[in-house]
């Protein structure tokens, strides 16, 4: 494992809090990818979004986390039931993490414009160690000899979501089963840590400038073993089809994002400027998002774009 020793030393001492909280993938443009964090969002749009995101973390350090996610959700016709699915692949050096979520939600009408939904995701996750990435310095290293190369665990996510024409707020609990992950026959099982997310945002019009809008939002992430981490965000919109955003993760990074929308299609790009101790080793992180809102042109959209 000599090849990866410098990487793990840097991350363990400079970015330990972020790694401990990262049993789930990290996203820079969570406002576009909010469905991943909360299954109750399934069916909350007046169209059916499909989204592909690609995230590369800590550029400049070899074999750092890379995440690809494909997601989609819809509301069943003439019902209050939302359905969705998420597939993601997260890799970090010799370790890879493949996840599949099947999602169900139900939406309650408070009045004509305001709704509350509850959502549940059934999750299957595969963890895999690829020995081809490892360079042995000791023959018959027990850490490798007794390694379990592949394991699959079940899990679940539950979320609640309140939303209207201009606002949204949600809370989520994930890794509810706290499934045990065993990666070595001679080492005790690792229990998956429950993650909790709280999000909220509101969109305002600029006075006397209806083509300009501003949307502040916040995402709080915490686990049972780490302190809360916050993403504080603001997005500026022009003509509903162009946006520029800024996000701050106190003590970790600043994120700048841009994007545009054309008909049913949209594109977003984000760059993370790291200012933690990792900044001596990395140029930051990048994320690209492609998406399509199926059926948006046939109904009046309540899109947050």
Can you tell me the number of structural domains?
Answer: 1
Number of contiguous helices: 4
- What order do the helices and strands follow? HHHEEEEEHEEEEEEEEEEEE
Q: Mind telling me which CATH architecture this is?
A: Beta Barrel
Radius of gyration based on Cα positions? 20 Å
The helix fraction, in percent, is under 10%
> Helix/strand/pairing class, anyone?
mainly beta
Give the mean pLDDT.
84
CATH superfamily: monomeric porin ompg
SS elements, strand count: 17
CATH topology: Porin
CATH class category: Mainly Beta
The proportion of residues in beta strands is over 45%
Q: Detail the poorly predicted runs.
A: 1-21, 300-305
In which order are the strands of the major sheet placed? 1-2-3-4-5-6-7-10-12-13-14-15-16-17
Label the overall shape.
globular
Distance between the termini: 46 Å
Short descriptors:
two-stranded antiparallel ribbon; disordered N terminus; mainly beta; 305 residues; globular; Porin; 14-stranded antiparallel barrel
Summed up:
With 305 residues, the protein is mostly beta strands. The chain contains four helices and 17 strands.
Structure description:
- The chain has four helices and 17 strands.
- It has a 14-stranded antiparallel β-barrel. Strands 8-9 form a two-stranded antiparallel sheet.
- The protein is globular.
- The N terminus and C terminus are likely disordered.
Topology:
Layout: H1 5-14, H2 16-20, H3 34-37, E1 48-59, E2 66-75, E3 81-92, E4 95-109, E5 115-129, H4 142-145, E6 150-163, E7 167-174, E8 180-181, E9 190-191, E10 195-202, E11 204-206, E12 209-223, E13 229-238, E14 242-249, E15 253-262, E16 265-274, E17 284-294
């Amino acid at each position: 494992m000599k090849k990866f020793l410098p990487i793990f030393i840097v991350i363990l001492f400079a970015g330990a809090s972020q790694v401990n909280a990262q049993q789930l993938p990290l996203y820079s443009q969570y406002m576009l990818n909010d469905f991943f964090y909360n299954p109750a969002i399934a069916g909350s749009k007046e169209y059916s979004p499909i989204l592909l995101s690609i995230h590369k973390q800590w550029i400049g350090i070899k074999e750092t986390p890379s995440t690809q996610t494909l997601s989609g959700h819809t509301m069943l016709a003439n019902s209050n039931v939302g359905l969705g699915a998420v597939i993601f692949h997260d890799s970090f050096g010799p370790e890879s993490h493949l996840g599949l979520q099947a999602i169900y939600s139900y939406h309650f009408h408070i009045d004509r414009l305001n709704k509350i939904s509850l959502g549940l995701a059934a999750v299957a996750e595969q963890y895999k160690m690829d020995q081809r990435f490892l360079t042995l310095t000791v023959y018959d290293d027990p850490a490798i000899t007794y390694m379990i190369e592949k394991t699959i665990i079940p899990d679940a996510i539950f979320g609640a979501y309140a939303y209207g024409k201009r606002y949204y707020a949600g809370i989520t609990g994930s890794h509810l089963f706290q499934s045990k992950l065993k990666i070595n026959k001679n080492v005790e099982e690792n229990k998956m840590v429950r993650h909790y997310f709280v999000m909220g945002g509101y969109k305002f019009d600029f006075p006397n400038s209806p083509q300009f809008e501003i949307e502040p939002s916040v995402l709080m992430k915490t686990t049972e073993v780490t302190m809360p981490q916050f993403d504080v965000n603001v997005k500026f919109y022009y003509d509903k089809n162009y946006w520029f955003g800024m996000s701050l993760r106190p003590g970790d990074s600043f994120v700048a994002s841009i994007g545009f929308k054309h008909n049913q299609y949209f594109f977003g790009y984000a760059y993370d400027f790291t200012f933690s101790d990792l900044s001596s080793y990395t140029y930051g992180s990048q994320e690209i998002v492609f998406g399509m809102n199926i059926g948006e042109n046939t109904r009046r959209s309540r899109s947050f774009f």
